[in-house]
Amino acid sequence: EVRDWARAGIARLLAAGGGDCVGELANRIPVKVMARLIGLPVGDVEQLLGWAFSGGDILAGTTTPQQMIELGASTGAMRAYLQEQFVQVQAGASHDPPRHVMDELAAGVREGAISEQEAVAIMIVLVGAAGESTSSLVGSAIRILAEDKRLQQRLRQHPDTLESFVEEVVRTEAPFKGHYRAVLQETQLGGVTIPPDARVFLLWAAANRDPAVFERPDAFDPERADIGEHLGFGHGIHFCIGARLARMEARVILEELLCRTSDIGLDATAPVRHVPSIFVRRLDQLHLTLSAA
After folding, report:
1. What does the buried/exposed string (b/e) look like for 8-32 if buried means 16 or more CB atoms within 10 Å of the residue's CB?
2. How many other β-carbons are positioned within 10 Å of the β-carbon of residue 240?
3. Cβ proximity of 282 and 271 under 8 Å
């Protein structure tokens, strides 16, 4: 399905001679994948697109009070929608084995492991996490390709190196720049005393360019020996549960884009634009010029 969705989006871009790949590929496909896995109607993608990035907007650090009010209302509407979808699943026949995440959550509620409120809260997190991070990864990967013609050709000739390319994109363009954490007890970090109840922001983007870990940390090098040492998907118990899914989506979309084009370029009339955020590294728009293979 991911490959089919990618082919359809690329076909529309090629028919138009180019366009905004964020709308066609980077945003839409991850949201469809998220819907399919959770058990939401894929046909609701337009509605889900409006909600998938609201969590990142709330944590962006650049949102005005009025925008926060609007985002709160939007999140409330999403919660009501997910609640309704979950109630329908609970009322239907149980599936063994479960077909999607909502089946698993419904089973958890029946068994008393979680409450219905907790089940809906988990779905809210997944709607945002599954769309935001993969959208960021795909958009950044396509931008890097569009800026480097030789890299495009090398990947077309050696598609087996796409996995390493994706890892280097995650390292240099971490989809989440960092995450907020609460300090539970006095902690020493790098010679600094952090008091209990302090709030910290763990900068994955900075860690991924640590010269003590990475040789030439600011250079984009898919062939580097330490390709998998980044923290772009987090670490330990907070490691991203969707990491393999995000890698697969990015690889498949890039495979289709490269094999169906002979050239990918940036549209000089439409500047590359990121969303204003200290939290995510996501493109707001990325207009391409494309030549069919």
Report:
1. ebbeebbeeebbbbbbbbbbbbbbb
2. 17
3. no
More confident residue, 97 or 171: 171
Mean pLDDT along residues 167-174: 96
Structural contact between residues 288 and 264, judged by C-beta atoms closer than 8 angstroms: yes
Let me know if 136 is exposed, middle or buried by CB neighbors in 10 A (0-12, 13-18, 19+). Answer: buried
**Residue 159 corresponds to which amino acid?**
P
Whole-number Cα distances in Å, 266 to 146, 155, 254: 6, 18, 16
Tokens found for residue 260? 């169906």
* H or E segment to which residue 202 belongs: strand 199-203
d(CA 269, CA 19): 11
Q: What is the pLDDT of residues 37-67, one digit of tens each?
A: 999 999 999 999 989 888 888 889 999 999 9
Are 215 and 272 a contacting pair, CB within 8 Å?
A: no
pTM of the shown model: 0.93
The backbone torsions φ and ψ at residue 69, rounded to the nearest 5 degrees and listed phi first, read -60, -45
pLDDT grade for 232, boundaries at 50, 70 and 90: very high
Residues 6 or more apart in contact with residue 9 via CB below 8 angstroms: 21, 24, 25, 28, 29
Rounded Cα distance, 283 and 275, in Å: 6
In angstroms, rounded to a whole number, what is the distance separating the alpha carbons of residues 186 and 188?
7
Interval 271-293 mean pLDDT: 94
Instruction: Categorize the per-residue pLDDT at 215 as very low, low, confident or very high, splitting at 50, 70 and 90.
Output: very high
CA dist., res. 216 & res. 152, Å (int): 22
Report the alpha-carbon distance of residue 270 to residue 192 in Å, rounded.
44
Q: Identify whether the C-beta of residue 92 lies closer than 8 Å to the C-beta of residue 72.
A: no
Give which of 266, 282, 286 is closest to 274, Cα–Cα: 282
